[in-house]
Design goal:
The protein is mostly helical. It has 2 domains: 31 residues, no CATH class; 328 residues, Rossmann fold, CATH 3.40.50.620. The chain is built from 16 helices and 5 strands. The chain has a 5-stranded parallel beta sheet with strand order 3-2-1-4-5, sandwiched between helices. Strand 1, helix 3 and strand 2 form a beta-alpha-beta unit. The chain is globular. The two termini are 36 Å apart. It binds zinc ion.
Length: 362
């Protein structure tokens, strides 16, 4: 296996190539990261305030580092009147739940806790994981639908997501959040009724195109990723800031602990590595190197400590929770990449292509 001489990405990453010095194409084309700009972000906030609704923004809160930092920014730095919301994905780590409670107590913001039907949710997670090798897509779909719904219920003009530039390029090539693909898997492999699936989806026919139109018309909240607008502290500094301001705590057993808020994260990372030959953390450490947050040596050390190729300690808990056996685990890691590519929404594909062209023009 070939590994980049500058970052630690390998040749399994889709579309990657290496130059004569052994540097990968992501490192070669990488321009120095530049945020969009705080002024643009302030304009968005001012427009939201001008709407004069009771709440300026919705902040989805998972108890992890990025979303807690966004809550701190919204309340303490930009003085917004926010609603925080948490979607119970059934896989919260206890430390994440405590972080949420403390952050809400300290900021005194309104907090909405969305709890979907547990049995339906478990069945959805179990079968999407078993037959497609992915669980994150199902969780993301449920989370996003609930976020949009809460924003609507509380008339929030904007949603402030914790999505971090560090997570760029860390997604698998399969269209895992695609609703057409999602419904296809569930109808083929589960006995869930159409109503149960649609209730889980909340907006069962909402594709990217309709979402965009609804946002433009002001019928749905504008989605904003603040970390792409402003200069960010390093991942470590971010943790220190929220520890001080919101009594945030992290899993000390891991030095770099993105997504520790989910107990299934180590297993999903393991599975991705088996199916694709690369996974989330490899991409994120590589991003951190490109941004001068850590050295390549440090990244290699962190990555080797993560020990992605071994089953994580808690994997049996996750399997038990989802009614899966050791034999099922073999089925999961034997799933082929892009297995459901035929069953994805044409509208979403077209929309994604248009957005990429627009980005290139800009
Ligand atoms: Zn590289």
């Amino acid at each position: 296996m070939k590994i980049c001489s500058k970052c630690i990405i390998n040749d399994k990453y889709p579309g990657i190539s290496f130059n004569e010095d052994g540097a990968c194409s992501l490192c070669v084309v990488q321009k120095k990261y530049k945020p969009i700009g705080e002024n643009q972000f302030l304009n968005i906030l001012q427009n939201a305030k001008n709407k004069a609704t009771k709440y300026d923004a919705l902040v989805p809160l998972s108890g992890g580092k990025d979303s807690t930092y966004i809550l701190h920014l919204a309340v303490n730095v930009y003085n917004l009147n926010v609603v925080a919301m948490t979607y119970d994905n059934g896989l919260f780590s206890p430390i994440a739940l405590e972080n949420i409670q403390r952050a809400i107590e300290i900021t005194k913001v309104k907090h909405v806790f969305c709890k979907p039907d547990k049995e339906v949710q478990k069945k959805i997670y179990r079968n999407t994981l078993l037959y497609s090798g992915d669980i994150c897509g199902a969780c993301d779909i449920g989370t996003k639908a609930n976020i949009i719904k809460v924003a609507k219920n509380y008339s929030c003009p904007i949603i402030l997501y914790g999505t971090s530039p560090l997570e760029e390029d860390s997604f698998v090539p399969d269209n895992i959040q695609d609703i057409v693909r999602f419904k296809y898997i569930l109808r083929k492999y589960t006995d869930l009724t159409k109503k149960e699936i649609n209730d889980f989806l909340i907006y069962p026919n909402l594709n990217l195109f309709l979402l965009s139109i609804n946002k433009k018309l002001g019928k749905m909240a504008k989605e904003v990723k603040p970390l792409f607008y402003i200069k960010n502290p390093t991942d470590k500094e971010m943790g220190e800031i929220i520890a001080k301001e919101l009594d945030w705590k992290e899993d000390k057993s891991k030095e770099y602990s993105k997504h520790f808020d989910c107990i299934a994260e180590p297993l999903t990372n393991y599975v991705r590595n088996k199916i694709y030959g690369y996974e989330r953390r490899l991409c994120q450490y590589s991003n951190m190197i490109r941004r001068d947050e850590i050295s390549r040596e440090k990244a290699l050390e962190l990555y080797s400590n993560d020990d992605i190729t071994s089953l994580p300690e808690n994997y049996q808990n996750v399997l038990n929770y989802l009614n899966l056996t050791e034999k099922d685990l073999q089925t999961i890691i034997n799933n082929q990449p892009l297995k459901f590519e035929k069953h994805t929404s044409q509208i979403n594909r077209l929309f994604t292509r248009l957005m990429k062209i627009k980005q290139r023009i800009n």
